[in-house]
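lol ok so funny story. i was supposed to be doing the assay writeup but got distracted and ended up predicting the structure for this chain instead. priorities right. anyway since i did it might as well share w the group, maybe its usefull for someone
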Amino acid sequence: MRMLKHGWLAVALVLLAAGCASTGKGDKLHEAQYAWSAAIRWGDFEGAWNLVDPEYRKAHPMTPVEFERYQHVGISRYHDLGEQVLADGDVVREIDLGVINRHTMTERGMRYTERWHYDEAAKAWWQTSGLPDLWAGE
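and the output, tada:
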């Protein structure tokens, strides 16, 4: 019985180590998406901006005033509605957000689409569609 107990412990440790060592492209995508969603949920839009593709950031720079505008809203929900792998390897993910206006305390729902691209040189996934437009072009 003792042998069986230690055998299961050894198997559990091997599986745990294998899980920790797993750093495949898919795992990196989920890590990047988790970091992105956490930043958005907690209102850290400048932190989320750091996960946007550097080429996109260079082509679409954000001003301090634009970042300040994000301080006027809170995110009450962030739901992943599904993702799709495109032919070019990019991943598109549809997101449902709850957006609260901090001044009026009114909430509204909105959807937006994230696009993720794997950068072979950086060995990292980048979000390539920028921060969500919480004002729908207003």
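Residues 3-22 have pLDDT under 50 and may be disordered. The radius of gyration is 19 Å.
back to the writeup now i swear
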